[in-house]
Known about the structure:
Elements: H1 3-26, H2 29-52, H3 55-68, E1 77-82, E2 88-94, H4 109-116, E3 125-129, H5 140-146, E4 151-155, H6 179-193, E5 199-204, H7 206-217, H8 219-225, E6 226-232, H9 248-267, H10 269-278, H11 280-291, H12 299-310, H13 314-326, E7 341-346, H14 354-363, E8 368-372, H15 379-382, H16 384-397
Parallel strand pairs: 3-4, 3-5, 5-6, 6-7, 7-8
Antiparallel strand pairs: 1-2, 2-4
Amino acid sequence: MSENSAAGDAAARAAAAVASVTGNWRKAGVAGAAIGVIAAGAAAGVAIERLTVGRGMRRKARLALDASGPYGALRGTPGKALSDDGTELYYEIDEVDPEAATGAGSAAGPRRRRLFGRKTPAPVTVVFSHGYCLNQDSWHFQRAALRGLVRTVHWDQRSHGRSARGAAQQGPGAVPVSIDQLGRDLKTVIDAAAPEGPLVLVGHSMGGMTIMALADQFPELVRERVVGVAFIGTSSGKLGEVNYGLPVAGVNAVRRVLPGVLKALGSQAELVERGRRATADLFAGLIKRYSFSSKDVDPAVVRFAERLIESTPIDVVAEFYPAFTDHDKVQALSVFLEIPALVLAGESDLVTPSTHSEAIGDLLPDAELVLVPDAGHLVILEHPEAVTDRLADLLARVGAMPAAANVGTHGSTAQPGG
């Protein structure tokens, strides 16, 4: 059998495996075909690996990568806050190391002096908001590089990581998740973890949308306290037009059936989770295709991304997906017009294309716009040095840390329990 035909056969089997999971609810043919369009590219790549590497060896390799890459092992002082619907939100605080951050805070500028007058200024707090199907550990490299230099808050969005499942999304009166709700959640975390002092808000993907929702609902908070903002791989709207790198026919089919498929899958979570485990290689290929662009990404980093995404239950995936089609926060961006801003994206992002970041840059003409070559959606993991460098520059500009601070470019030296 030729390599090409073997790859094709494996791709067909992978698409059939996905179809078998969805077939009971969407007559498999339509849903399987649509999801199969997405799966095909990843499945073909997985097929080549299967020609030479057995399933047992692949499983051992994953375990070895998990052991060798202590990514996501950083922990801070834990805290919990209750959102307006009673959802328990988990966050962690990393405080400033006085010796490491000597000189920080002396150049916060007019906004900070206006806030605090002659009083000893409260430290700047940098609040990191993560993306869809991730958790606060996705900021591992930036957290490690900035640790001790600036006060940071990392939190898990509702139904992700260590935060509780959305209370309003459960029970007979369940309501869909909205980006506006996430904005209110962020306000809750700020009130609990950083009730005073200047703020820098940093958001990746859904986290950036959360920041926009905060500004839309609490513009005075932003005007009075936010001294800097960073939007990374995110969008202010029109996500329903994204083609995910698919041909027109394929993406149209996916758009028609995906919401229904996800809803059906979410209603059979236990069965679907078994299916995810059975097709781990296929989903690993999908994750790599839609998260990274570089061909030489560290395998341990790829595996880390897999773990983050795999940890998100399928019913949570289904709950959140419709909110992105409704997301439109173009008007909210005007709240940030006079605030130093960084807008950064991977040039090859298939999930929130870099054109969406360019659109944000057009609305914030004084922002620094950075497009990272050979980078995909998870640019914060794929090219952490580029993200950390530009973020550190923003923090120095707003006086959150000294310009001469020794910021690590990768922050990959963290040890478990650090």
